[in-house]
Amino acid sequence: MTNVRFSNVVTGAGRYAPSPSGDLHLGNLRTALLAWLFARSTDRRFLMRVEDLDRVRPGAQARQLADLAAIGLDWDGPVIRQSERLPRYQAAIDRLTDAGLVYECYCTRREIQQAATAPHGPMGAYPGTCRALTDAERAAHRADRRPAALRLRASVTEFEIVDELHGRYRGQVDDLVLRRGDGTPAYNLAVVVDDAAQGIDQVVRGDDLLSSTPRQAYLASLLELPVPQYAHVPLVLNEAGIRLAKRDGAVTLADQLALGNTPEQVAAALACSLGYPPLSPIELLDSFTPAHLPMEPWILDENGLLQRNRCP
Ligand code: GLU
């Protein structure tokens, strides 16, 4: 791999942006540790943003933040919550609407799936059904009281981004949803608005989000917002090669504590999974080099993290 190292800046920021839909698992903690290391090792601020626009489980937010602190991560300034920033998202939608880049979409999920799986349809992309509705058709849908989502009128089908770990990456852009039928701003919009508003110029997150990144970068360019640097890091998988889930054993910090492991031991095991000695986050900072990151997913065995993933 080529030498990947973010340039040193003092004004920028990195972030971790958990969705409070449940407890963080070891994969989430490892991604958070990496986001913290990338930011702190380049003298950036590290910000915490709770993405609570949907899938909120009571109590999850407080536990997530407590777990992150327990493994030795800290962040600058107050925690930002997306549910408190709705006017910002609407302002971005208004701006795109004024530029003629937004349309109402009345399709149900089922209709989209059926159209998208039609022969020769673009794989997984919104097929554009509502792009050119006539005024009469739109009025009929409104009379039917179907909730309208708002979609972006994209003028490209692909967009290229540069990722510090994956290099140049070209991916699909479609007429993505900006606001859902129930009025909730869409993740892709909120993330772009917030990263820019918070001065975040370094986005480190799981590589399951790599394929969404061209959409987000395209949206940022339409809103004339700077596109951040990206690093999409490998996920943690179970032995079957599937993304970690609750049923995979002792996957949360609470599970590990119940087994008698300390938060320090969990943090040390995460360091080991990154190819480092069993150090705390702050001790790791001195030697952290993104170029040496293992690019394969980290596989956990079903008996829990600490038995099989010992440091060399
Ligand atoms: N909230 C998203 C998640 O927990 C992460 C979004 C991001 O890092 O851009 O999967």
Could you walk me through the main structural features you see in this protein, from its secondary elements to its overall organization?
The chain has helices at residues 26-40, 60-70, 86-98, 109-116, 135-143, 187-197, 213-222, 253-258, 263-273, 281-284, 305-308; strands at residues 13-16, 45-50, 80-81, 102-105, 149-152, 158-163, 167-172, 177-179, 202-206, 229-233, 236-237, 298-299. It has 312 residues and is an alpha/beta fold. Helix 3 packs across helix 6 and helix 6 packs across helix 7 (213-222). The longest helix has 15 residues, at 26-40. The mean pLDDT is 90. The structure holds glutamic acid. The site of glutamic acid has 7 residues, from loops. Glutamic acid (GLU) binds next to loops.
In short:
By secondary structure, this protein is an alpha/beta fold. It has helices at residues 26-40, 60-70, 86-98, 109-116, 135-143, 187-197, 213-222, 253-258, 263-273, 281-284, 305-308; strands at 13-16, 45-50, 80-81, 102-105, 149-152, 158-163, 167-172, 177-179, 202-206, 229-233, 236-237, 298-299.
